[in-house]
Design brief:
6 strands; alpha+beta; Beta-Lactamase; binds fe (ii) ion; 14 helices; six-stranded antiparallel sheet
Length: about 375
């Protein structure tokens, strides 16, 4: 392999990581494993193992019958392939030449599986660990059955790949973990509102559902829909700061009481401002009572001044509120709610969103 060829391959390797931030962990694993397989000329078959409960189990393969490969499972301590690296060592790639498996080291079933896969004798394997921080959590294996040694450049490419792959894998792992934590924070906040305001139970989920439908009909990107979805779920989080008597009052609210209710978007802002990475969610929630014609609260924004996400939440919120029983009135039918919403088309609500809502056929 010439220096030029190596350069081209290295560039391809780097390119295979380009959109790794936006892909899921699974898509990332599949895409990069296929990419490295294509880069290593001597690789005829390949498999990817992940550590699950102290066992390396195959989760991907190229060229092998995966149903057969799945029968293999190796303890992290047992040397399936000699692991020369320790946790502290930098990631490297290793080549082994298996002339014949040591029968005594494996069960009869495993030997039979090796034979079925063609990995019982006479092949070479180039492998490298995948690390999460310092801990080995996976194994990339590439096999050659033509008695061909892996070149120095192939070893170098696999090493560079495994290093870069492990870095991104680690970042993704911790990002998933932090997303999970945020999700738990969201759940706790929802629980807190539900305990406070009995009517809200189920309401947040329905507003979320209708908002996502409207956003999908509008053609918003998946990323924006995900953010909107969380904002919709949390839209009334600020009610935590409003007295329970006012929230559940069976009669009409006095002006003073209504002024209290009007504080909930501002309260939401104060709460959600505290969460890192929630800037947009906080903003959408803060604006969910602004009306299209500028007659809403807290700031009297109008038209494009109101984020479309907030306009969506507002319409979804209004529809669900109208079609649910409230402490002070019985629910409206779908037809009655739609009539009320159409009457507010271009006033309280964005006219385009009203049209989209009509197309959703929510009564079904
Ligand atoms: Fe609200």
């Amino acid at each position: 392999m010439s220096t030029h060829e190596l350069k081209v391959k290295y560039e391809k390797l780097v390119a295979s990581f380009v959109d790794s931030e936006t892909t899921t962990r699974r898509e990332f694993i599949e895409k990069s494993f296929n990419a490295v397989f294509d880069l290593i000329d001597e690789a005829e078959k390949g498999s990817f193992y992940e550590l699950q409960d102290d066992f390396y189990v195959p989760t991907l393969s190229i060229g092998y019958d995966f149903e057969t490969l799945k029968k293999l499972k190796f303890s992290a301590k047992d040397a399936f392939i000699d692991f020369e690296s320790t946790d502290d060592q930098l990631i490297d790639s290793y080549e082994v030449h298996i002339k014949k498996r040591e029968d005594a080291a494996f069960s009869l079933d495993t030997i039979a599986t090796f034979k079925a896969l063609g990995t019982y004798e006479n092949f070479r394997s180039l492998y490298a660990p995948v690390k999460l921080g310092k801990k080995k959590v996976g194994l990339i294996c590439l096999e050659n059955f033509s008695n061909l040694s892996f070149s120095r450049n192939s070893k170098l490419l696999l090493r560079l790949f495994a290093q870069q792959y492990s870095n991104i894998f680690t970042l993704k792992y911790y990002k998933d973990l932090s997303d999970q934590k945020l999700e738990n924070v969201v759940k706790v906040l929802i629980k807190a509102i539900e305990l406070k305001d009995e009517y809200t139970s189920g309401h947040a989920n329905r507003v979320q559902e209708i908002s996502v439908m409207l956003a999908g009909a509008m053609g918003l990107s998946t990323e924006r829909i995900i953010t909107l979805s969380t904002a919709a779920l949390l839209h009334d989080v600020g009610k935590i700061g409003i007295s329970t008597e006012i929230l559940n009052k069976p009669n009409r609210l006095t002006e003073l009481e209504f002024n209290q209710i009007k504080m909930h978007p501002g309260n939401a802002k104060k709460i959600l401002d505290e969460i890192d990475g929630f800037d947009e969610i906080c903003h959408y929630t803060y604006c969910h009572h602004e009306y299209y014609d500028g007659s809403g609260y807290p700031r009297g924004l109008k038209h494009n001044e109101i984020p479309i996400e907030s306009q969506i939440i507002q319409l979804a919120d209004a529809y669900d509120a109208m079609t649910s029983d409230r402490s002070y009135r019985k629910k409206f039918t779908h037809q009655e709610a739609i009539r009320l919403i159409i009457a507010q088309r271009g006033k309280q609500f964005n006219p385009d969103l009203v049209d989209l809502l009509l197309d959703l056929r929510l009564e079904a």
